[in-house]
Specification:
By secondary structure, this protein is α/β, with parallel strands linked by helices. The chain folds into two domains: 122 residues, Beta-Lactamase (2-Layer Sandwich); 123 residues, STAS domain (Transcription Regulator spoIIAA), CATH 3.30.750. The strands form two sheets. Strands 2-1-5-4-3 form a five-stranded antiparallel sheet, sandwiched between helices. Strands 6-7-8-9-10 form a five-stranded mixed sheet, sandwiched between helices. Helix 7 runs parallel beside helix 8. The termini are far apart.
Length: 266
């Protein structure tokens, strides 16, 4: 009698949980769905029971090796992952936890899944990521300084993500402007360590592979001293202390000659 009361109470609790909860048998056929799950699918339980879970959720993981429900039924560990489902012609981002469903003897008879709708959270994350990308692009503008010469002034900290964005910007500018020389001006970089130097070397090598020379300008006495103390060799990369000197080197590489025009005699 007590077992029956405990069982009914457990079902009552599951039915009232305000987020989808479902259970399937070993064949992935639905044997339980709480009211929140029925509302999520927009169906009555009578129309859900006995259907394969993948036929209703149509998620990215369904019928693939990524399906956590199938993994726990086969004896795998419980896990929580993100997924994307198509419900009533709309895309919903979810986070679901799958656990094995066992009988009194500990035998796995199916799986239990707890689902959270995280669509708003994912869209906010995507929005923040896009804003971050735009800010990085604004903070690292590529400027066409002369015919086939582009300058990329860098201000702030250079981390892995920033370095990748810088490389993408530079390579794109090489294609757009048929650039032959790119000046990477690091006068606004607060500090240069081994990681930053390695990022700069990779950027210079990538531009060289596209037939473009990279000149690093803005090498201050402090930066020069730090590079020497760290034992960092920039290799064949041209370096200058000022943007003006870097531009002069760029002219020389392209065999441009700057001629001062004489004023007309009065």
């Amino acid at each position: 009698m007590n077992n029956q009361i405990d069982y009914n109470l457990a079902l009552q609790v599951l039915r009232q949980i305000p987020t989808p909860v479902m259970a399937v048998d070993r064949d992935l056929k639905i044997i339980f769905m709480n009211q929140a799950g029925c509302n999520f699918l927009g169906k009555k339980f009578e129309d859900i029971k006995g259907n394969y879970c993948y036929s209703l959720f149509n998620s990215l993981h369904c019928q693939t090796p990524e399906c956590r429900m199938k993994k726990v039924i086969e004896g795998g560990e419980s896990s929580t992952v993100r997924n994307e489902v198509r419900v009533n012609d709309r895309t919903v981002y979810i986070e679901y936890t799958a656990a094995a469903l066992k009988d009194d003897d500990g035998n796995i008879i199916g799986g239990l899944e707890y689902i959270l709708d995280i669509t708003d959270r994912v869209r906010q994350e995507q929005k923040l990521k896009e804003q971050s990308r735009i800010i990085m692009e604004i903070s690292t503008p590529a400027i066409k300084l002369w015919d086939r010469i582009v300058v990329l002034p860098v201000v702030g900290v250079i981390d892995s993500m920033r370095a990748q964005q810088m490389m993408d910007t530079m390579l794109k500018q090489i294609t757009i402007n048929s650039s032959k020389v790119i000046i990477l001006d690091i006068q606004g970089v607060a500090a240069v360590d081994t990681a930053v130097a390695n990022h700069l070397i990779k950027i210079a090598k990538a531009t060289k592979l596209m037939g473009c020379r990279c000149i690093i300008s803005g090498i201050s006495p402090a930066v020069a001293q730090a590079l020497v103390q760290l034992g960092i060799d920039l290799g064949e990369i041209n370096t200058n202390s000022t943007l003006e000197d870097a531009l002069s080197d760029a002219f020389a590489l392209l065999k441009f000659e700057v001629v001062r025009k004489k004023q007309d005699a009065k």
